[in-house]
Amino acid sequence: MKNVTVVLGAFYGDEGKGKVIDYLSADNKYAVRYSGGNNAGHSVEVNGIKFAFHLLPSGILYDNVKAILGNGVVIDPKVLIEEINNLKEKGYKVKNLYISEKAHVILPYHIILDETLEEIREVNKLGTTKRGIGPAYCDKYERSGIRMEDFVSKRFKELLKENINNKNLILKAYKKPKLKFSEIYKEYKEYAKILKPYVCDTVTMLHNAIRKGEKILCEGAQASLLDIDFGSYPFVTSSNPTIGGAITGTGIGAKYIGEVYGVIKAYSSRVGAGPFVTELLDETGDKIRELGHEYGVTTKRPRRCGWLDLVSIRYSCMINGLTGLCVNHLDTIGKFDKIKVCVAYEYKGKKTLDFSTNIDFLNNCTPVYEEFEGNFGDISKCRKFEDLPLKAQKYINRIEELTDTPVKFIGVGAGREEIIAR
Ligand code: IMP
Predict the structure, then answer these.
(1) Given 224, 241, 261, which residue is the final one in a domain?
(2) From the CB of 297, is ligand 1 less than 6 Å away?
(3) Ligand 1 pocket test, candidate residues 226, 227, 230, most atoms within 8 A of CB
(4) 224 lines ligand 1 (CB under 6 A)
(5) Annotated catalytic sites, by residue?
């Protein structure tokens, strides 16, 4: 039975995944995060109250939904406890949270190393979120990481000691202050006590749900072009936000996955360093940023903005096997008189539709644009595709044509109900 739906970012992040997730949540019994950590930032608005989540799946806001942090996630205990406490202050009991025993823990040395590595990098400064994500995944794959099941057990003390001894050797080489085991242990063993009740075998839990025919929603974080394998390496995050991550980061087999929705905006944005073929470093780019409120939820950094890049999106559709797209901010792009869409790249004098993550390729491509009529007017009340002005429909039709993927959801305003579902 295919009762699992995956919602993931199809560009460089911040596509507004929360909107579709929110729309689909009522129907699901499980909301699962499968990759990344608190480098993510999801804004959700429920009953007029705004929430900004970095770690928790947004499904946590529904009492009837079990919210899971899957094994593919890296967890900063301090941040997670803060998010739990914030929810409790707002009246939520947070009894519906489950943390995979296999998820890895972000510890203070990961954050210090993330900052230090960025500081000393001379080529390819990545512009990471400095949340310790890369170093935590490094430890996971190097096999010295501390998993949640270790963190909440007696083993934590000796594992932490060994890790701190090793990290101190590295930090000494970088001329950074020595870490004190006793201080870190004292603080983190308290966090472990708080989180212990939430830690469990989420794989068995999910499969019991699958057997019962209950619906599961996997909430992607970051996005396809930031994928460690398929993104614009090295300007990527350290996990797999693509469909493969939803499988390895949860323990759910491919045969259970039905819909895979990729979320994009009607324009493009990226935060952090790295190639961005349709980036606009002019007034139009500034106007998109202001109209779309393109400032990071996690780092508050202004996002780089540009026209929609269908060559990248087409690639995302392919590598993820997307069954549908969600196009957000159609209202925002509709405020321009004329809208451009990149329908091919020109590389070394030749037009191509084939995307490559090779940095030299991306840095030397120029976008081939098609121009569309804008001025869509107020489309925020449209709830059916046919309600949209023809010029807006034309824009969406071209996205479907070029990506060979149906547009199943369209965001027509900031409010949670301002969405067209087809
Ligand atoms: P890291 O994930 O903190 O290591 O950062 C690596 C790159 O991914 C940087 O360019 C970040 O700006 C970017 N990044 C990480 N998380 C997000 C996200 O949730 N949205 C958008 N960009 C992100």
Answers:
(1) 261
(2) no
(3) 226
(4) no
(5) 14, 42
Q: What's the pLDDT at 414?
A: 86
Q: Which of 12, 61, 21, 418 is nearest to 219 (CA)?
A: 21
Assess whether 62 and 120 both reside in one domain.
Answer: no
Pocket test for ligand 1, best of 114, 128, 131 (most atoms within 8 A of CB): 128
222 CB near ligand 1 (under 6 Å): yes
Residue 50 has a pLDDT of 82
How many Å lie between the centroid of ligand 1 and the Cα of residue 274?
A: 11
**Does the C-beta of 132 come closer than 6 Å to ligand 1?**
no
pLDDT computed for residue 46 by the predictor: 74
CA of 133 to the centre of ligand 1 (A): 9
pLDDT at position 332, please? 97
Same domain, 54 and 79: yes
Rounded to the nearest whole angstrom, what is the distance from the C-alpha of residue 374 to the centroid of ligand 1?
31
Task: Give 4 Cα–ligand 1 centroid separation in angstroms.
Answer: 26
Rounded Cα–Cα distance for residues 111 and 333 (Å): 37
- pLDDT of res. 42: 81
Q: Which two tokens stand for residue 25?
A: 């949540």
DSSP-derived pairing of the beta strands 419-421 and 407-411: antiparallel
Q: Which amino acid is at 341?
A: V
Query: Contact 297/267 with Cβ under 8 angstroms?
Result: no
**pLDDT, position 316:** 98
- Of 142, 169, 195, which closes a domain? 195
Q: Checking phi first, is residue 384 left (phi over 0); if not, alpha (psi -120 to 50) or beta?
A: beta
Q: 224 and 82, same structural domain? A: yes
Residues 11 and 52 in one domain: yes
**What does 110-169 look like in DSSP terms, one character per residue?**
HHHHHHHHHHH--S-------SSHHHHHHHHHHT---BHHHHTSTHHHHHHHHHHHHHHH
Tell whether 270 and 394 lie within a shared domain.
yes
Task: Give average pLDDT by consecutive 10-residue segment, the chain, 422 residues.
Answer: 95 91 87 96 78 90 93 98 95 95 98 96 91 98 98 98 98 96 98 98 98 96 96 96 98 97 97 94 96 86 96 98 98 97 97 95 96 97 97 98 97 91 94
User: What is residue 45's predicted lDDT score, i.e. its pLDDT?
Assistant: 72
- By most ligand atoms within 8 Å of CB, the mutation choice from 133, 271, 303, 304 for ligand 1 is 271
pLDDT value, residue 410: 98
Range of the domain at 126: 104-195
Q: What pLDDT score does 300 carry? A: 82
In the chain, the number of structural domains is 3
